[in-house]
Amino acid sequence: MASLEISQRGALWIVATGVIAAGLYFLREPLTQFAMALILWLAIDGLTTTLDMRLPFTPRWLALPIALILVLSLFALIGFVVIDNLANILSDLNRYEFRLNQVISQAHRALGAPGIPSTVRDLVAQANPNNRLAVEIGGSLQNFASAATFTLIYLAFLFPASAAMKDKLDFIFRGKGQREAAREVLARIRESMERYLWVQTVMSLVITALTYITLRIIGLENALFWSFLIFFLNYIPTIGSIAAVALTTAVALVQFPTLPPVFAIFAGVGLWQFVIGNFVQPRMTGESLNLSAVVVLLALAIWGLVWGIVGAFLAAPMTVMIMIVLAQFPSTRWIAILLSADGKPTPETKRVSKSESGPK
Q: One GO BP annotation here (predicted)?
């Protein structure tokens, strides 16, 4: 009888996991937009609380619009810089194409491959035989603009929804103990997310600044553009650092006719990624990102498969959120323990955001 019950429970877990995975995949477009809006809301709410606590003469009703303007202005500035530098890159496409053809020809001769080396246009034609590359790029830009619009709409509705959450918990959980437990779980999730976002943003800004200085000294063109791309890549655990080094090295290989500047960029960008990523960042994210290294890589693969590039950005915070929720139930706590790095998936909450008590 007991074995039958265990089998039924295991089958139920498998079916539930499959249904949830299918739902996350088929509804990935609205869910990723909502998830990005939630991350933005947490960043704004965390900055609001920081301003409220650090600036005693700033009431919360004033700290909230200041935080909102600061966060959205940062993203607007990054978008402006990326678009402006992208125009410069597109204007130099002919020069880049000539250099790429040289690199392809050199690699072709070095490998001793037979026949005539392919050109960039040949490779693009093979990858896109119907010559619809421009149409696909235009469609991607249109989808990005649509996703950004819906993300901002979700963000606008999250603020009044979060203000009413306290009353909703009172209606859902009638017992005082249940309400306190639910609030504690939400506080832990919020605190972990806000701390993770804060540390990740600070570390990304430091790496971006050091990378920009390095690229400018060596002489890489459009250094600000590549530095901002690295800023976003650093939100992807492990893989983002590798992609940042590979990206700048590939760009240097196209620009410089000799190898010493290429090796200099590879060593310089790789140095900042290695030092900060392995010595500075773990000390700061240890309490917020309490995930095993293997779990981080597995989460990156799974969320990236389900939600694409947005899933790669959200892999770590989403997995932390799931770990904290699973730790609240005896039947699933063992999963949370396996996901955690130190076997303690629910550390003590150090603070509770002032927003939970409502505006001043």
A: transmembrane transport
Residues in contact with 202: Cβ distance below 8 Å, sequence separation at least 6, in sequence order = 284
**Taking 50 as the threshold, does the pLDDT of residue 358 lie above it?**
no
3-state secondary structure of 291: strand
What is the structure's pLDDT at 128?
Answer: 53
Is 203 within 8 Å of 195 (Cβ atoms)? no
Q: Nearest CA to 318 among 20, 66, 53, 60?
A: 20
Q: Which amino acid is at 88?
A: N
How many CB atoms lie under 10 A from the CB of residue 115? 6
Q: C-alpha distances in angstroms, 334 versus 36, 95, 327, 337? A: 29, 57, 8, 5
Structure confidence by residue, pLDDT tens digits, 172-187: 777 778 778 888 888 8
Q: How far apart are CA 307 and CA 157, in angstroms?
A: 23
pTM to 2 decimal places: 0.76
C-alpha pair distances (Å), 343 with each of 206, 285, 324, 339: 31, 16, 12, 8
User: Rounded to an integer, what distance in angstroms lies between the CA atom of residue 50 and that of residue 46?
Assistant: 6
The domain limits of the chain are 27-91+128-163, 92-124
- Mean per-residue pLDDT, 342-356: 54
| DSSP at 354 | G
Lookup result for tokens 């990326």: 82
